[in-house]
Structures are given as C-alpha cells and as structure tokens.
Specification:
By secondary structure, the protein is α/β, with parallel strands linked by helices. The protein is built from ten helices and 13 strands.
Amino acid sequence: MSVNDRRAGGRGGGGAGSVVVLGATGFVGRHICEVFGAAGWTVTGVARSVQGPPAPYDIVPLDVVDAEPGRIAALLAERGAGVVVNAAGAVWQTTEDDMTRANADLVKQLVAATARSAGRPRLIQLGSVHEYGPVPRTGITEDTPTAPVTPYGRSKLAGARALLDATEAGAAEGLVLRVSNVSGPGTHRASLLGMVAHHLATGSPEPLRLAPLLAHRDFVDVRDVADAALAAANSQASGQVLNIGGGQATSVRSLVARLTELAGAAAEIVEAPSAGGRPPEAEWQRMDIGRAGELLGWSPRRSLDDSLRDLLAHARDAVHRESLSSALQVARTTMAVSDHR
C-alpha cells in the first residue's frame, strides 16, 4: 500500500487516512491517538477496557492479546485501517508469561491479521531499547547486536522479529521503532520517574527509598515518540528497525534531583542497595537516532526539562483528582448512612 493509498483512508473517510491504535488508553497509546487525530487521521483506539473521560475518537473495547487473528482482521476491515500502530504490551507488575503473550505473541497475531486484510495495512511496532541488552559505552545503532537479559527485553525482541521476518517474506509491510526510556505527562507510576513524580506531587514528608541511582540512560518524551509513529505511518520505508530516543546518556540521579528541584519541595530521596541487584544493561544507554532522521525526517523536539515539568504537572493533577474523588466518595457514604437513620 502506497503513502497516498494510506492517506486516502479507504472506508475510514478521514482526510489523512485511517489508523487503528492498539493500547489506546495507555501512556504512549493515548498520545499517539492525539497526534494522529491532530494530523487529520480517522483514529480508532483499541483497548482492553474503556475508562476515563470521553476521547475525541472511537475506542473499541477488545482484549487483542486473547483475540483471534480473524477477529482483529474484521476490526481492521470495518475501520478501513491503512495503518496499525501497536502500542499495546506488558511491562509493569506482570509475569514473564504475560509479557510473552502481550509483547511477542500479539505481534504474530497482528501480522496474520493484516495479511488477511484488504490492502494489507502498514504495521508500526513500538519496540524497546531493552531489546539490545548490555551495551558498551558507545552509541547504540540499529546494527548493534541484540542480546537482551530481561524477560521484557526478550519478549519485545521476539515481537520485533515476528514483524521483520514477515516483511522479509513479503507477508507484511511496516517498521519497528525501538524506543528508549519514555518520560513526559502520564508516565506510569511503576516507573522510576513516575514514582518520584507521584511522591513529590503528594507532598509526603516521608523519605522515598530507591535503588542506587547509578545508571545513565537515554530518555525521550512521549510526545516525540508519538510524532515518530506518525512519521513512520507516512513513510514508505519497510522491514527496518529505527531507534527512537533522545540521543543522550543522562544520569538518572541528576533527573531525580531535577524533578525534586522543579517540585520546589525539600523531599528526601534515599538510595538503598537492593538485595537482588540489577542487570548490567541498566547502567548505560545512548541511542544513535541518525537513521530515523534520514528515513523519517524525525528528531526529538522536547527538552528533558520540559518533559519533567509536564510529568510533574500531570502527576499533581492526578493526585488532585484522586483527592476530590475520595472526598466525594466519603460524602456519598456519609449521606447514605444518614438516609438509613
């Protein structure tokens, strides 16, 4: 399918095309839906459950991990999808089996589903820097050997290979975007930066205990990741891996200190060694993002400082909403008790 065909939108009816985004209510997926919508695409989000405020695009409740390829193909045909962006997956607070199903097996099902679809939608797979595993202190290029040492990294690599093998065999069209560590508004609380931002947003006087902050990692803002997904959808490149990151190795300790500074609070951060240690891949990462610039015309536009500010603002809003919700629930309970008297 050509770029013009994808933009025509088929049955989608949108001015720029029709896109189906898996994991649409997640941290990254929500931003991808917003960016495609702002660019004039007809957006259909797919999520296991539909929660939160109404979105300006359709969200179809479907657990794609358990769905058969035929069911997914029917959905793509119904929505006239020219592009499918896979932002679904499992990373936080889950089992290794769940990671395999959500990060590897799902991609195989998507490849099978798109092969059945008229026009064969273009598939954009969001991969991870953790697919590379331990690396030397040089830039990670797309040619760096992959040797992941974590269940998450292994499962994401298996998903990437499923798409790459299919494109090589002529059974699929698409790209793997290998994404570095993502920050910005909506960062998951189970992540390091999300955990710190939430702690600062609550104003808790208790110290926050963390593992030693020795790592240097590559960070990219979630909105820049969404921009990369849009650029990949509009590209004719296929069957390749493209690194999507900030292009710098940044001290994690300095990021935590900067978040604390931005919060304007005298929060106590305590670094305490963990009993189990951690894999060496966590120590140093820097993505070489030159190929994404050459093929997609993409480069990150948001600074880390802006990303941290927006992360903190979002965390504060979330804490405020939760406080109001709790107060409302208490009031309802009190009124119910009074009514029974």
